[in-house]
Amino acid sequence: TGVISSLQRQLEIQESQLWRIKSEKEMLQKQLSERENQLQAMSTKFCSLREEQKHEETMVTIEKENCSLRQVVTEQESKLAEQNKLISELQGTVSQLQAEVRTSRYHIHKQQQAQAAIQSQAETLQHRELQTRVALECVTSRFERYRSKIIQATFSTAGSKPPQAEVTDEEVLEAMQKIINERMEFHQMLKQKGVR
């Protein structure tokens, strides 16, 4: 945004200079036209005086005025050419600044789009994280209930002592394995005795 503001200020300065130079050009063209009219008038006057055969001194004066006017016209034309050249250069600078402004705006638009996409992805990830936490809490709660039931079932069998403190997973597994082994031994004993 700072680059665009700077470019726009430069653009406004260049356009102001361009407008001022165009005004000067118009003024020079007007002056040139006036000088040409004066020259034409003087030439007409000179011709009239020659036709009337006036004094040679008046003819010399008119000729000097004509020379002076021609010199002024030449100077004005030179200035006009310089102004035209400067106008062309300023127009090129203005075009370049306008292109830079368009490029900067395009980059800013792309950055805004990328930022919006990242923001959307962040919101999606936050939503997924919340869903995952809820699911994890649900699974953890179900696991704790299931573990509690396993412990209750394991230590409520005949001959088992209820735990006095918090039971680890390894202790629960050992108690279950002991019950399973005892059932298998009892089953084998019944089988050997022929009891179905």
What labels describe this entry?
CC-FHA_domain, coiled coil, 2 domains, CCD27 protein, mainly alpha, 0% strand, rod-shaped, 3 helices, 196 residues
Give the topology, please.
Elements: H1 2-52, H2 56-155, H3 169-192
Helix pairs in contact: 1-2, 2-3
In short:
The chain is mainly alpha-helical and 196 residues long. It has three helices and no strands.
Description:
This is CCD27 protein. Residues 4-45, 73-100 form a coiled coil. Keywords: Coiled coil. Helix 1 (2-52) packs antiparallel against helix 2 and helix 2 (56-155) packs across helix 3. By secondary structure, the chain is mainly α. 3% of the residues are buried. It is built from three helices and no strands. The protein has helices at 2-52, 56-155, 169-192. The radius of gyration is 52 Å and the shape is rod-shaped. Helix content is 89%, strand content 0%. The protein folds into two domains: 12-116; 122-193. The model has no long low-confidence stretch (mean pLDDT 86).
